[in-house]
Amino acid sequence: MPTISYHDAVNEALERMDDLGYERGAGVDLANHGPMGAEALAMLRHEGEVAGWVERYRVAMPHHEPPAARFALDPADESSWRPALGAFERAGDWERLFVRELADAPWRDVLARWWPRLLPGLFAGLTHGLIRTAHAVRGLYGAADGKPASAQLTELARGLAYWAARYTALPGQARLRGTYDLAGAIAALPRVPGDGGPMNPGVAHGRLARLAELPGYREALDAPAVDHAPRLLSEMTTHFSDVYLSHDEVFPVPLIHGVTAPAAVRLVLPHLPAGQYEPTLAALWQVHTALLLAFTTSRRGEGTGAWRRELPEDPPSWDELGGRAVEHGDEHVLKFTEACRREYALRPDPRFRAAVLAAQRRIARLGA
Fold it and tell me: What is the pTM (predicted TM-score) of this model?
């Protein structure tokens, strides 16, 4: 039995990582995964391992300095905050705005007010604005006595601030007005063949820059039919587990977000007005379309059952997979394992377990 509770473990982790900036890496801008990884680790029922993991994470890669606030943003004045969307140099201003918002109103009210404003920029930081926000929300709605700790409110402010500062609007607008189910929409999307070189983040970045010009992109935005939100989220996590399994030729991290982004939305959706469900699902599909076109050059084994080679005859239990994720240590593996375990509980499809095994094999261990 754990000797520390989920909330104590997460709050302590947030305090230990309070000095880390929004991004990390020398010469690159990678999202700070510390708060998300620590929260996922606690959800995997390894609360006692969180403190040690935080110390390992802190030294694995240098983090940038926390951004300083410069000019105040007025949340009541659209001409004040809208031009600052996607301006990473304003991240400190965004954090100050959300800290102020959360001090003046219940966090659910702040979330509902800003969600539709930020939703068109869902691709922010490869969806890490959304995912960090969702992990923060999960910590808040289970707070003891309904009174969130200040560290939890600050973390929600930072999740929203990172989303706003890295806000990335994809071209066009998805509306879910088609006739395809999700599997059909994925199958119908043409892929752009590669030039024979490795499909890496640099190549994908170039494709993202000309996304609107890629064959099939605009047609895909309206391809799926609207569906009941929880069911469509399960379709997304299931079929993008299949996509992940089918593309071992791709750098092993980006396609994980085809699963973790909708799994993150599931954490937040109960706290949003019902009118936000369909726009959120449409924005997720647009992100999925971008991921497929940017990172894949063919369908390979998608939808064929080729993924079964990743699953042994006697597959490990979810508790064992969680233990392996803790030992592995990589933050993406922790988040992916937790998300797939949670999604499997709702829809017990073997592709979730197979995808976790694949990720634990393909992704380098923390500090390696």
Answer: 0.97
